[in-house]
TrEMBL record:
Its cofactor is Mg(2+). This is NUDIX hydrolase. PROSITE patterns: NUDIX, NUDIX_BOX. Keywords: Hydrolase.
Length: 189
């Protein structure tokens, strides 16, 4: 993320003195920054760089589309809302439409941006752009070569049970279920 004038003026701003690249992967990179703290002392910050991602709350027939896939970092299968990383130069809305169809086989005729949020601001710059749609038509699943998942449409009660069972435990899907529940109860987000 680029620094803006507002953050530089913040009393807790940490000036970067040195930045060392440590790892460059296909999706993320890792760097270690030496920073000057507000009290004049120095410290190091390990920072994960990530291109950003999108996620979609997609509702069809009063059910939310979810995908189940194995997550190596957790060593277990997870149920999550459709999501994926931004490709270089890709606009978040276009990525959301692409990921939704690739993973679920549904195409959104319209989509609404709900919120963009940090996933782990203590060490990563990743931002997820969360979208909503209930305006869907059948398309085609186009999974990436290394992607293995199943898609299902679940009720709100099923989603809450999946949370209880630990099948849903990632932040974006927990947020999605909470937002969906609020919309179900109040009619809006």
């Amino acid at each position: 993320m680029s620094e803006n004038h507002e953050s530089i003026q913040h009393p807790f701003y940490e000036e970067t003195i040195e930045s060392k690249p440590i790892f460059q992967g296909r999706i993320i990179s890792l760097q270690v920054d030496t920073v000057r703290l507000p009290n004049g002392e120095t410290a190091t910050r390990e920072i994960v760089r990530h291109p950003g991602a999108v996620a979609v709350i997609a509702i069809v027939d009063n059910k939310m589309l979810v995908v189940e896939q194995f997550r190596k970092a957790l060593e277990k299968a997870q149920v999550e809302i459709p999501a994926g990383k931004l490709d270089a130069g890709e606009e978040p809305e276009a990525a959301a439409l692409r990921e939704l169809e690739e993973e679920t086989g549904y195409r959104a005729r319209s989509i609404v941006h709900l919120q963009s949020f940090s996933t782990s601001p203590g060490f990563a710059e990743e931002i997820i752009h969360l979208y909503f749609t209930d305006d869907l038509e059948q398309g085609e699943v186009h999974l990436d070569e290394e992607e293995f998942l199943t898609c299902e449409a679940i009720t709100l009660d099923q989603a809450l049970q999946y949370i209880q069972d630990g099948r849903i435990c990632d932040a974006k899907t927990l947020l999605a279920v909470s937002a969906w529940r609020i919309r179900t109860l109040t009619g809006s987000f």
